[in-house]
Every structure is written in structure tokens, then in C-alpha cells.
Amino acid sequence: MSMGRAKLKMELIAKEKTRNTTYHKRKQGIIKKANEFSILCDVDTSIIIFPPNSNEPEIWPENPVIKSRKISLLTC
Amino acid sequence: MSMGRAKLKMELIAKEKTRNTTYHKRKQGIIKKANEFSILCDVDTSIIIFPPNSNEPEIWPENPVIKSRKISLLTC
DNA sequence: GCAACTATAATTAGGAG
DNA sequence: CCTCCTAATTATAGTTG
Fold first, then answer.
1. Do A40 and B74 touch (CB under 8 A)?
2. Which residues of A fall within a CB distance of 8 Å from B10?
């Protein structure tokens, strides 16, 4: 029997496993929202995320809009 | 009497006034989500938005995390 | 044009398989 | 590690002041 969702304290999720699950769920949620935002309002939007155990940023969308906007994202 | 929220077709909002209202509401929504995501999962996140009638990007957070990550966002 | 409201849609925490 | 479930929380479309 499922318990449904519980309220979440707005602070770092201590348990690594839970934190990782939340990371993936919410990352997808934000990307979905950004995609809808772009379509509904005809706005170019880009999201840059630095995953927990990596210095390599995740950039959305894959072919960043920032390029066509004459903006460069450069690793130093 | 309020009608509550209606379902929205996933396509460009034709009416400028409605589109602008949605733009502001959803922009705040995405930023809130990104902020929560950063706190809950200890992840640096940055959002770049190009408003409809401007070439000047809106960057969140104001003091972009990307700077401390040795990433540069440069207008060409 | 804004802020507040509210009914409804959408997200998601925690669990189960 | 998934994917699915479901109740509860959260976001928000349309309206009103």
C-alpha cells in the first residue's frame, strides 16, 4: 500500500540514496518545466547543472540555444 | 467566482497579454524549482533566459554559480 | 498592470515489485 | 538499478479587486 507523498524539509537530503533519487526526479521535472516555458512563451531557455560527483556540467538543451544567441559557454 | 486552472495546450500562447502573464508566472516557478533543487541535492544550477523582446539574457542566480565553477558565459 | 484568490492540473516523496 | 503507484503537496490558468 502506497503512502503517497510526504512533506519535505527544504534542506540537504542527508541519505545519499534518497538524495540521488530526488536528484534524478527533480532534474527531469525542471527540464520539463523549462521546455514547456520555451514553447508556451517562445523564449529560449538554457539550464546548466553541475552533478554532485562531477565537474562536467550538464547543459540543457543538448544543442544549447546560447550558441545561436552568440553566447559562448567556455570552460576555463 | 474563480474557475481555477484550466488545462493548457502545449503550444505558443497566441494572446500577447496572456503570454506575458504566463511568462512571468512560470519564470518564477522554474527559478523556485531550481533553487529547491540546489538546496535539496547540493547541486549548483544556473538558468539562462532570453526574454521575448530583448537580446540581454536573464541569468539566475544573479551571481552565477558558473563563475565559481571556472566557467565563463561570454557574449561574443 | 499588479497582487490575491481558488479550483484544478501537475509534480513528487515514499514505498512496492 | 529500474518502473509503477498513489496520496499529498505544489504550481498555475483564469478570474477578480
1. no
2. 36, 39-40
Q: Give Cα separations from A69 to A61, B9, B14, B50 (angstroms).
A: 13, 27, 24, 9
User: What is the separation, in whole angstroms, between the first and last Cα of chain A?
Assistant: 51
What 3-state DSSP class applies to A32?
helix
- Which residue in chain B is spatially nearest to A23 when comparing CA positions? B41
Predicted pLDDT at A56: 77
Higher pLDDT, residue A75 or B11: B11
Looking at the domain covering B16-66, what would its CATH class be?
alpha beta
All structural domains of chain B with their residue ranges: 16-66
Distance from the B64 Cα atom to the nearest Cα atom in chain A, whole angstroms: 10
Query: Mind listing the pLDDT tens digit for each residue in A39-60?
Result: 999 999 999 998 877 777 888 9
pTM above 0.85, yes or no: yes
d(CA A6, CA A27): 19
